[in-house]
Queue: 4 jobs
Job 1
Amino acid sequence: MEHMGIEPGRLQFSWISSAESTKFVEVVTQVTNAIKALGPNSDFTKKLAEVA
Amino acid sequence: MLSYAEKIREIAGRLLSSGAVDMVIGFRQGTVPMMNEPHFAKTPAEVGKLVWDSHCGINLANYLTDRKEKIGIVAKGCDSRNIVTHVIENKIKREQLVVIGVPCKGMADKRRIAMKCPGEITEVIETETAITAAGNGFSQTFDKRDVLQHNCSLCIHRNPAIHDELVAELVEEQQGVDRYADVRSLEAMTPEQRWKYFEDLLAPCVRCYACRNACPLCYCPTCFVDESRPQWVGKGQDPSDVRTFHFLRAYHCAGRCTDCGACERSCPVGINMRVFTKKLEKDCLDLFGWEAGLSLDVRPPLDVYRPNDPNDFIK
């Protein structure tokens, strides 16, 4: 995905066991903050056809 | 290389008349120059149409999917690797096949030839080392090595990976080829540059899916782009949909693509979509030491778990 030109960090992978609730919360917070810092991803938004 | 045709006919005739196979898949002259088409010879009488020259770029493994009869198939290096992949993926049984191996010196890129000619090419004559293209008021001769398909000029597996018959002596493999120069130059770009690069690359795409249809790996009964419940990807010309199609298709070929070039060859607008699959091919080689379709006995890396599989991307 990064090879295609998605900003590094927008796509993240984690391994969390169903018993690791604390890690889950940590990772979610971390990822959310990281993505928020990157700002909205406009690359994949479709624009409506322009009508006169 | 031109003597191959006779040998192919001889082998095909022998296989058909002895009943060893029900059908031989090879090439016949196309209706336009430089466009050979697949030929399915079912009787010894149909064998005469089989040909071999530098325009046999179509990957014939594509025609094996889920066939039930016994088949003799003409296979270049890349075709044979895709046949191996088909066998590994249970799309055909090895016992059904008689692989007629063709040591290959690369296929000509019809676009490169057409671009260098001033008009429409109506006749193409080939010798061992040169191709002469002629049309209304012109005739030009090219060295074969100058008009090879890009993937053929980078090929390091010209000889068939498996074969039961051989039409000629094995050819020398190319040494010291830098297969991934283009991928590396892409990797060196910033994400924004890459985004722009692919945007420009895919801009002319008309979503005809010729690349998918020509690809021997794309044999799903219903392709994800044709699914409507759920609809994975939009069907229009929107750049994000075009891109989604191309990179998802590439992902489906991860660890399977042999860089046969069928996709690029079939593209009506000449998009080099091999830059997607080549990146995956390079990653497979770097991370797993894997090249697709070389052996019937090894399972592909995305098929098996090994404790030392790279997993640095997981945080």
Note: The interface with chain B takes residues 1-8, 12-15, 27, 43-46 of chain A (CB under 8 Å).
Job 2
Amino acid sequence: MENAKDTFYITLRNRLTSVNPNRTMLLRAVRRPGILVEEAEAPAAKLPLDVFVLRWTAVEMDMQLPSMLVRMTCEIHYTTAGTQANGGLDRGRALEEMDAELLQLLSPMNAQKMNYTTTQATAMGTDVFWTVPVFDSVKTLRDQLSRSVTVTVFVFQEQGEL
Amino acid sequence: MSTTALTVMPPVTRRVRAYFAPVDRVNQKPAIFDPSSSGQFSLDAPLSPWIDLGWIEGFTRQSTSKYAELATGMPATTQYQMRESVDATVSFRFKTWSKLSMALSAGSQHMNLLSPAVGATANGSGSKAVAPVNLATGSTATLLAMAASDAATFTAGSMVAVDVDYAGQTGFVGSGISATYVQSATSVNSDADYVRRVTFNVARVSQVTSNGLQLAQSLIASVPTSSMKVQPLLGFVDREGGSFFQEWSALFVMPGEQGERILFHYPRLQALAGAAEASTPLVAPLERIALHASFRAMPVTDANDGEQVVCFRSFLPSAMTLI
């Protein structure tokens, strides 16, 4: 399952660099594309602004198939307060921009599964695929707008894969 | 030493596993499963000739035997019963698609989509194929020995059909399993590739070496003969229609949670319907597509008493339960 989670994240991260190369963040002193996996970073009280945060929640397995079919729920959270230059009055536009970007990141809705634990990432035999995103309603907290999007990610476990 | 017996419990099971074996169509001999000697076989390692088709879903058996009664007297009362006919059907869904599961559920001939020759005329079940490759000596069930120049025409990951040339014969054709029945050479256009077009002797290539092709799975007809040839294939095709009825022996196993086992053995099954699929929603619009299969059970003679029967149901109780 870890290969699938890694593949999903790296796929979205790589797509983000072409969809919006300006969406970056400074994390642990490194400038990176503005997307992160919550469970792979230090715990934080607040989600960073203008960044896509992937949160893995539920997992189900169909073990009655020769290759186990795993379905994992990924919540993608993002929050924006708009830009300082516009005094935050563009926060609605900023959120809509992130909605549109996310749609592009998730399309096409599959990717070849990769093993990133090897020094040179190696391609595996199956694809990771996912559902159309389900957009939750906007949540407002003071000057910030937040949205949560749910995607179900599917993967067949290959022989010997953890 | 004595052990306390347990009171009888209802069998609890969660799934059904299917095994099939080819019927020798030429000699009309089905594969017979003996539950007294093999009933507790390892589900992951079935005995030859049984082929594991994995866990299935929607397993449904139905007896359609007809009964009649002989009534006498006034008012009439039934004095005797008799069986007018013996008939049974079985249906289920294969969860996965493979050459075998697709062929079993197709109801008629199942064909391999051989790689087409350049410029071949389009045809619904595949056009004229590229030329086959000869085998060299030293082939095994998992290694196709051939000249290095021939091996170089294949790639790792490709699929191959391995069988003899069609040479005008009539009757059942196909190595290992009777794949179809040829009525006349003209009906198959005397196509030298026809046997490879229908054969079950197919496999995935895992590695190409200068010695030949290493296969990822064993050939169903085991070690190839020197007269067999190899052709690349791209997939499979079946049709609604056709005159051939596949016939297979089948075994279905319900493993119980307490170690008991229920087995259903159908020595002869023939398709009852054409190809159909069943979809199971995952998360809309994603669906898992299963192969629907339904069969009619054909009779065999039980050697113990000469009775004509179509199905054997066996029950192997769990340890120390009262019987």
Note: The interface with chain A takes residues 15, 54-55, 57, 95-96, 282-286, 288 of chain B (CB under 8 Å).
Job 3
Amino acid sequence: MPPRITYSTGIVLFAVSRGFRYGFEIMDASGLPSGTVYPILRRLEDARLLSAKWEPIADARDEQRPPRRYYQITGAGRQALRDASARFPGLTGTLQPAASPTGS
Amino acid sequence: MSRIPGASLIRLVARLIPAGRREEWSAEWIGELAHAARSGAPAWRLHLRSLGAVPDALWLRHHHGASTRGHSMFTHDVRYAVRTLARRPAFTAIVIVTLSLCIGASTAVFSIVESVLLHGLNYRDLDRLVAVWSNNPKEKADHYQVSIGDYFDWRARSRSFEQLAGFFPEWNVTYTAPNVAERLAVGAVSANFLRMLGVRPRIGRDFAAAEEQVGAAPVAILSHGFWLERFNEDPSVIGKVITLDDTKYTIVGAMDADFSFPQQRVDVIVPLPILGSYIHRRGVHMLSVIGRLGPGVTIASARREMAGIVAQISAEHPDVNVGLGVTVNSLSDDLLGDIRRPIEVLFAAVCAVLLIGCANVANLMLVRAAGRQQELSLRAAMGAQPSAIARQLLTESGLIALVSGALGIGIAFAVTHATAAMLPSSIARIGSVRVDAMVLTFTVVVCIAVALLCGVGPAVRGSRLASGQRLRDAARGSSSSRSAHRIHNGLVIGEIALALTLVVCAGLLITSFARLTGTDAGFRGDHLLRMKVSLPDAAPDAKRDQFFESLFAQARALPGVRAVASINRFPLHDANLTTQVIVDGAPPPPDDQYPEADFRLASPGYFATMGIPLLAGRDFGSSDLATRSSPRVAVINRTAALRLFGSTNPVGRRMKLGPESAPSITVIGVVGDVHDQSLKEAPRPQIFVSTRQRVPTVVSVVVRYEGKPGPVIAGVRRIVGSLDAAAPVYDIQTIEELLVTASLGERFTTSLLSGFAALAVVLAALGAYGVIAYGVAQRTREIGIRMALGARDSEVLAMVLREGALLFAIALVVGAGASWWATRAVAGLLYGVDATDPTTLLAAVGAMAVATGIACYVPARRASQVDPTTAIRA
């Protein structure tokens, strides 16, 4: 069953689509608190609108820290984002101006 | 890896995550936190963000939890219960306030029970410890101190005891150190004292057997308090020397904080030889004796053995030991005897309040279960099992008990401190009252009991209601089961009866307390001050006399001082000392048992300073001196005059104090009686000898002052310091304070029990109100019809009030029975009032009747104002 896309869900989906891939990055970009972002990520992942992978172990080892888990938008996710953008026209203007993705 | 801010919370919260996903979940959070920390994010921000792990974990647990069915049913029940309770905030608040007050009060009282009665005496195998006293059956005195000679004989001859130890708990000495002169309380003990109690010093060693011999090198063991205060718990104190009354004592040990000296708080423990010359005198009864029974020895068999030994010793020393017997009691009865009963009464009272609270809440919940009939029936119709509905209702009461318990513990923490401050010193010195693990366990048990008491009734009823065929009835709201009504009434009758019992007991204690505080102590307590001044024992009499004369002369000149005098043992404060009295010319008593009287040393002007009236003759004068030419004189009190001289005039009569060989002294005056050992005890015969003829070493200086006591105390201190820098002034109090202290135990019991009784009355009245109001609400239609058929307001009012009166009448009968039983328990605590005092009993019934009357009148009045047309249509 596809999840109900709320405004916050839409923001998270949009942030991931713009290359913000890690939990804390998504928070920085969306301005949403950690207690909101993570359950949304779990829901989107359960609904296969996002997929998750672990960052290559070598990258983390170089920086002497544990690896992070990152999220990517799926095909179904892009479709859902399009639907959400139609429902919430302001969605694409919601990201924090100073934020820039680390990945891609 | 260095510490990552927030990581510890993640590890904690990870326990909520289903096992299969836990590792990955933690890794993701730790990964993000570690990365952010490396990128220089401030720690507070990471801590803040890590809080998001909680909703994240709860979400995952909820959606991916591999929980069992029972578990999810439980969370479902809890959530449903929370929602149901939140929907009725007023009901929930009343119930929780009631229960948390009851639980808080019972927890606070239990903390006293636990710390004083259960753990107050921290000695190994307490049940094997016995107190052994001399007694005198003819004088009906069964707690005589033991003479030191007798004690050593007992110890040598008895076989019942593993250890038999003797001690004197209130020897006072002056402790001197550079810039310090301080009075200390010393416990003088036999060398085996600590071994007998089964305790060891925390540091250092116990006394050796040889150290109790006269002439052994003086040694001392410090109490924890003194060690902490003077030496800051420094372990290197062992081997150091302290000076007590000009004698140097080597410190060999220091006690732990949880050790309490029996009977009295002491600063230092030393072997018996500190008692000096007393140690050789068999006639001086000053030791308390405690024994540890050998394995398998009973108190009864120890008693038999000791009786034989005492008879033997009496035969060997007929001059001093005539008529003496022996008392052997369990130590805990002996030490806790006086305070056990009030604490038990308070605990019983608080349990009664708890029961009333539970009955009240159970009633409220029963009424509410009835109100929820439709909801419950609907759930049953949709397939809910009766067991599921019962479980749901039990969950609600469990949740209420949990919240109330948590609040109750909070209340207990808050009030235990205040309660402990109110405790009379006789209780406070036995155990420090606090909320500890055992008290919390008690609270948990109480909460479970509360949940069951309040919840089972409604649960059973709810599951019965939830049968499909009742749905129709429920919709009409006309179903009222007669048995349910009986349960409501039964609970309220029980509440009123219990509350009545508490009010009766509280009433008796209040009357008793009023009589006690209203008792004339025999002297004027206002603007009166006492303080102890002590001089070295070794100073010659003349020097001490001169010291006190100079002190009085200079103190009288202080501004605000109206009179100054002294007494060696102040009434209601110091321990007693008695003497045998032989009246010159009176025939010897048939059994050689001469009368006894309290013996006091008082200065000239003492009676006038105290406001004790002179009834005949004269006070001591400045000419009554210790010189050869000055005859020895005494003043006696009224009771002594009557006991010793009957109706004849005692002034000018002569008597001997002590043995027949003692010199005769002349009675020069008779003064009014004073309550000396306790306000409860009738005045005893007392004999006063002038301090100028027999000079004491320690006195209470008594000052009648004007204005504030502070400057007077400072002035006396200054004078004493200028006369002798090594003489301490201590133990200072106004007599108003002393009179309050003298009734502190009674004040404590009375005020607490009155508080509980008031709470019980309010709860019982609320209960009665609830039941009557519910009955009225159920019968609104019936009342409407009656009124439509011509019933007047007053008839309806009377009808409802009759119902309340019937409840009260039944409760009165039940309560009378319970009161009869309960007043037996408090009878021993009463002073000047009989346990069946009719005024108090009637007042208690009256108070309860008024409370119940008001509780019934409100719904009755509402019933009488029912509008028939609305009621019938409803």
Note: Helices of chain A lie at 7-17, 23-30, 34-46, 57-62, 75-87.
Job 4
Amino acid sequence: MKIIRQDLERLIKACLIDLSEEEKGVYLEQLNDMLGYVDSLNKLDTDSVEPLVHVLPQHNVFREDKLQPSLDRGLVLANAPEEHEGTFVVPRIV
Amino acid sequence: MQLHVLSLNRINELITKKEISAEELTKAYLEQISRVEDDIKAYVTVNEEEASVRAGIPVAVQDNICTKGVKTTCASNMLANFISPYDAVVVENLRKAGASLIGKCNMDEFAMGNTTEYSAFFRTKNPYLAEAMPGGCGCAAAVAAGEAAFALGSDASGGIRQAAAFCGVFGLKPTYGLVSQYGLITYAPSLDQIGPLTRDMTDLALVLNIICGRDSVDSGKGDADLPDYKKHLVNDVKGLKIGVPIEYLNTVKAPRVAAKIQEAIRKLEELGAVCEEVTMPHAEFALPAHCIISSAEASSNLARYDGVRYGSRVESPDVLNMFKKTRSQGFGEEVKRRIMFGTQVLSTGCYEQYYTKAMKVRTLVKNDFDLAFEKYDCLLTPTVPATAYKTGEKALAMYQSDFCTIPVNMAGLPAMSLPFGMAENLPVGLQLIAGHFNEGMLLRVGYTLEQNTDQTRLRPDISGL
């Protein structure tokens, strides 16, 4: 398949990525190249094939429902771009 | 005695006999780093402080594996100053076993690439030839250049194995689920595994024993019984059946690389193994299917980088613009491309055609292997169809470079790369692939080759080696 400029606009909105006009042209071409490349899979008939979700039979690993130490609040917040009295600060939302 | 070229096994011996101390060892490595690191640039961070204070066996860790108190950048501007509040389970296990973190290795941004050219910081050089690629991380370069005793890397498309092949060291990607992923900043969790890069086969077994310890936090961890991998270092391949997939062999265009692979096959036959050509008809479809699955997973995984809880932020009074600016400036070109592509193949109207299709192809790729392992104990292929690519060689050649490694990730199998001689002054890598949780078979065949040829002992011609 091929995507057009409108599709790209929709994509970058979904990805929360801004692109300059020039970049849009470049990415549009590259994304179409990639789509063209993966279209080669259409050569394979997979109608009767089950999709592979997990490579190995696995089941959930449960831990005991016991209180455990959580991450150090100071260390976690030290990575925040902005924090205030133990909370993450973001630009005004409402 | 040159301490920074010794194997782990030998280091352990010398430390146990008290002939050397961990302090001397650390000092030797830091000296080698100061001699060669300006030329190699394997590290984003050299952890001189910790290595000196808490001397142990120096390990290099790829910069997408979380290390408490030491920056974990994923070679991205997005995480340029990120300091994890916890250690990855593998790092915890290594520290318990007496290793000390000597540095964090460069990589392509968020591990998307196989050259380190997409690192937001700089490119790592191959110790054998400066203009040649080191693979997708600095781990193998660090081990080959004597800048670390061993390393841990990650492998979602061949990262560990290609770097090992390009730099002439040993690298093993364990079975999906054998080693904890907890603390690995992965872009494609259904494909990724942490594994060791070392200077010989015995060291691979030693490190594997340490890192595959269980943990209670990793959702992707398998239940297989954990053997002592040292027991599999057996010098004997008599009667083993080894399959050689023709589709993989046919990718090799360089005659000298092809000759090395044939030489390895002959050697194994001489030692009593039975080598036969086998066909893996879906091999060529593994690449495009992997491209879809890995990008899809990346687009979802990297949604967390929004400039709120960690990572860089580009300020804006409006929150939506803050998200956009942060992501646009924090991510590099390749990362953005894969996020967009992944979002596209998951979008309404495309999901069935691309994502579901790729998952079906994944089944076919895995079935090829399942069939092969009904008949063969392991498979032998080149790790990469050529020796390390040089700057400017990109495009077509490099796109083929994942051909032999990617199907393994698609099927979650264990595989390793071991050096097997040189071609045009660069190391050649030999790949062995085995069935799920059959790392022991890889160790046995690799060890036998190592013990019976001198092809696996390579050393670059650089200062201090």
Note: The radius of gyration of chain A is 23 Å.
